Amino acid sequence: MRVLGIDCGTERTGWGVIDSDGRRHSVLGHGVIATSPRDPLSARLAEIAVRLREVIGAHGPEAAAVEEVFYAQNVKTALKLAHVRGVALLAVAEAGVALGEYSPLEVKSSVVGYGRAEKHQVQLMVKSLTGVGIESEDAADALAVAICHATHCCAAMRAAR
Fold this sequence. Notes:
Blueprint: E1 2-7, E2 12-20, E3 25-34, H1 41-59, E4 63-67, H2 75-94, E5 98-102, H3 104-111, H4 119-130, H5 137-160
Parallel strand pairs: 1-4, 4-5
Antiparallel strand pairs: 1-2, 2-3
Helix pairs in contact: 1-2, 3-5, 4-5
């Protein structure tokens, strides 16, 4: 199964694509869509949408996964994050790609085994699971979301047999 994971952010949206059988995960690509905080939010959202469409077109994922919006202390930040998430959901839907949504707790539990894991722990486990060191926390988080989805989907398929 080819899965695109997306880690939404207004300044840095991470993405990662894996091929997975639910147990072994091979990284096909990863990166960060960086936007300037000086640009209007609408321009940043448009750039994120264009770049996600390019990633989807280049890698042809069968599924995509994003984290659910979590409550942040700063409501304004949470609203901006929700806008980016909406753009990501739209790009995925336009491509006709199946979508999975997971809480940050689910992603961390699935990848690290502990729902309150720190970002560096997620990075280390992504490296351990894929054999690829990812320098960007945003790309590592996106790959973690993809791994979580692949693990859940493949486990459900095995249980259905």
